[in-house]
Amino acid sequence: MARDQIDTQPIESRDELVAWFEAGSKAPSKFRIGTEHEKFPFTLKGHEPVPYEGANGIRALLEGMQALNCWEPIMEGETIIGLADTVGGGAISLEPGGQFELSGAPLITIHETCAEVNSHLDQVREVATPLGFGFLGLGMSPKWTLAETPVMPKGRYKIMSNYMPKVGTHGLDMMFRTCTVQVNLDFASEADMVKKLRVGLALQPVATALFANSPFTEGKPNGFLSFRSEIWRDTDNNRAGMLPFAFEDGMGFERYVDYALDVPMYFIKRGDAYIDVAGSSFRDLLAGRHPAVPGDSATVSDWANHLSTIFPEVRLKRYLEMRGADGGPWRNLCALPALWTGLYYDTTSLDAAWDLAKGWSAEERQKLRDDVPRLGFKAEIAGRSMLDLARDVVEIARAGLVRRDYRDSQGRDESRFLAPLEASLKAGQTPAELLLARYEGAWNRSVEPVFVEDAY
């Protein structure tokens, strides 16, 4: 997340929290696509992680990017921690271990999204190459231990890193050693949100399989195709998972509010200060009786920041965030928003996607989600292989993109961005399996070549 919310308008009731979500509804003509992707910086000499400080560190990269694109610096005290495009709406931010993230602007088409991605890559290369580092697109850092991974100077991350070991075994791995690509998409109404949330949750394991790309840990195969996804199974189960309640009768904004109110808080921010309240209740803050800020009412900022610390497979804000995919090579980054845009922004495709999943039980959905990190396309649900299911899902998305009929200057519609997924399905192999084949073959059981062959 590039920047914490700074709206100090008081919120005093549960109804106001529900209304906050309702205000996210948009007419379909106003629907937009926001793509976020993370990548690992590494030194070109030695393939080591890049620290924040130093003449050739992350701070220097941010300062160089700021000089190049004239975006507004995002500061925490005297420390630059990101950049914001105050005109277009995009932002650059740092994840806890130095993962460099572009939070893309809200755009109309995948053509625009992919142009944004390519422009960002060009700018990053222009600044980073003279500093002596490059970027790697994988779901998990393939080489470095937690101890070797740098820590970025952000107050919220210090609070999270202290809390994570208390609630799961993989929280620090999630924070410091994983990367994702996700897309944020809009809804038209409460009913539209519920349908899209259900489709997104049920089919999120499909995206996990299609983008599985994290088979290495500390220089060796880890036994998984998406270890990033496996990590989320024991990071903090109070704030992650498949949200089975979303499929129950009565699901809507109110039900999600009740869920979010019961997720323990991490922090309260007042001014520039982060107050560690990890494990405490937002309900106390809403009632004006939180012991860390006695007498303070909750604000819009408090609510929005709290929602940003909830990590289900699909996250509801004033839009829906698809969170199931590993970070990957540049050629795959535009495929993720293309997949979900084709499913969500065409009503025929959305109906077809729901038809695939609506008969599954909560237990079947959970088993698929649990199996996919290890099995990929070989996982099964309701007697079907993930490979067959993924083929159907990608075909439904392709049809939706064709019907959207947004064309580029060469007359091509958005379905062309699904080509990397269709190639994986044709081969019957996830990106991780292709990496493992190279590791066992041409790479002679070393991960070092990934820093050359798969770098941006």
UniProtKB/TrEMBL annotation:
InterPro entries per the UniProt record, alphabetical: GCL_bact_plant, GCS2, Gln_synth/guanido_kin_cat_dom, Glut_cys_lig_pln_type
GO molecular function per UniProt: ATP binding; glutamate-cysteine ligase activity
Root EC class: ligase
GO biological process: glutathione biosynthetic process
Disulfide-bonded cysteines: C114-C334
Catalytic activity from the UniProt record: L-cysteine + L-glutamate + ATP = gamma-L-glutamyl-L-cysteine + ADP + phosphate + H(+)
Pathway where it operates: Sulfur metabolism; glutathione biosynthesis; glutathione from L-cysteine and L-glutamate: step 1/2
Keywords tagged on the record: ATP-binding, Disulfide bond, Glutathione biosynthesis, Ligase, Nucleotide-binding, Transit peptide
Lineage top rank: taxon: Bacteria
Enzyme Commission identifier(s): 6.3.2.2
Complex formation: Homodimer or monomer when oxidized or reduced, respectively.
Homology family: Belongs to the glutamate--cysteine ligase type 2 family. EgtA subfamily.
Its job: Catalyzes the synthesis of gamma-glutamylcysteine (gamma-GC).
PANTHER family from the UniProt entry: GLUTAMATE--CYSTEINE LIGASE, CHLOROPLASTIC
Name listed for the protein in its UniProt record: Glutamate--cysteine ligase
Protein source organism: Ancylobacter rudongensis
Lineage: Bacteria, Pseudomonadati, Pseudomonadota, Alphaproteobacteria, Hyphomicrobiales
